[in-house]
Here is the input.
Amino acid sequence: HMKRRKRWNNYPPGPVSFPFIGNLLQINFQCPRLALTEPTEKFGKIFSLQVGWKNVVVLNGLEAVKEALVQRSEDFADRPPFSLFDHLGYRKNCEGIMMARYGRGWKELRRFTLSTLRNFGLGKKSLDQRVTEEAGYLCSAFSSKDGHSFNPRFLINSAVGNVMCSLTFGNRFEYNNEKFLRMLHLIEEAFNIGAGIMSQILNMMPWLLYIPGPHHNIFQPYADSFDILREIVKKHKETRDPGFTRDFIDAFLEEIEKAKMDPESTFSEDNLIFTVFDLFGAATETTTVTLCWALLFMLRYPDVQRRVHEEIDKVIGRDRSPEIEDQVNLPYTNAVIYETQRYCDVVFAGVPRTTYRDTEVQGFFIPKGTTIIAVLSSVLKDEMIWEKPHQFYPEHFLDADGQFVKQEAFLPFSAGRRMCLGEQLARKELFLFFATLLQHFTFHIPEGQPRPQEDGCYILIHSPDSYELCAIPR
Ligand code: HEM
Here is the structure.
């Protein structure tokens, strides 16, 4: 292998690797974030690792990440092969959307999904209405705690999950509906496994599957999630009215019908299941965790909370619900939400990419088929760019007159062709949920409990340690 590397002039430097396992033993699995940022001290912002036989290049900082994902967008638009899922039914043009290889199947599916989500519109309610309505249910659930302390994560997760249910299945569920909770739980579990270190390792070293052991059980949550989704699709087919599109599943079923004669089409029933699974997996945990961080920062920084309250009182008042149009008139509240996303760097390592052809970044040569990790955290906290990269500081997004300003290095949704498909939806949810909650409640640290910490835990995503709050009606 060393021989092959020598042929590549200018391949990014990295730690010396061992046969078979590469750098596996040198990687800090306790803290993946440090594993991806620490080697920059020795090797620079672009460095290489070897995992099994696979070459991995890690990109740190705004310049490298932008050059790769934006300027050379197509060169970096592929995802690593994930042959691990083949026996779950994944195949060419039928691999969902998140991990789909770059090509016709992914393009069709991405275009369809984006325009379908945008048009909701579908059925009777607009997307904004669906989110506003759910924000109302979330407030009622917070109220029902009567000022007693609770961990907000469970309710937020249900509210965020319900927005996806409403879009894809056409209905929402009560927060204590057992079937609903089981489904959310299973999809989250499966999704975390798929993104987890264990399946990455199995994927890169599939020969491990020949060795018996508990790692074979990791597929069960997938099978269970797919069963639940298949059942829901079956009901849709039975109750469908071809003249009326109720939701995402109906819209997809229409595409399947149109593509009946094309065996290569990306619109098949299997792919419908995989796509809905991906949407739930990508949407729920990320948005939930971001909102948990936002409330945690309100507990830690009462002055910031007070200014958000004042702004909402002035612009919206207490008699009507926040609407998406209010966002432009709430620069401080908006800055708090942006700063939350910057500082909590939820998807800190992005989602792995693969080079689609030989390419280069900052003068380094990167061959086709290399796994690329663009460390979004290193952009969101780039010390060359942000005034206070390692502090919660909403002023990052405000000018001297208190007006909202965008920042180039604000990339929590990544950038380029594969960037987050749900950005618009996520923005709506973050704004409407946050503004509605802050309109109705003052958040306190429960008496006798410590101030919640902002370190959290970097595993797949960066989530806060669990904490409790009191929601006092205003
Ligand atoms: C991909 C972040 C919410 C659907 C991604 C990626 C990031 C991300 C960093 C990887 C992009 C890349 O490879 O460069 C976030 C954050 C969210 C959020 C921080 C919330 C705060 C959502 C929502 C949806 C969604 C609500 C649902 C509609 C997707 C999908 C992909 C994706 C389908 C894969 C796109 C592709 O491969 O073409 N997201 N996301 N995300 N996200 Fe999100």
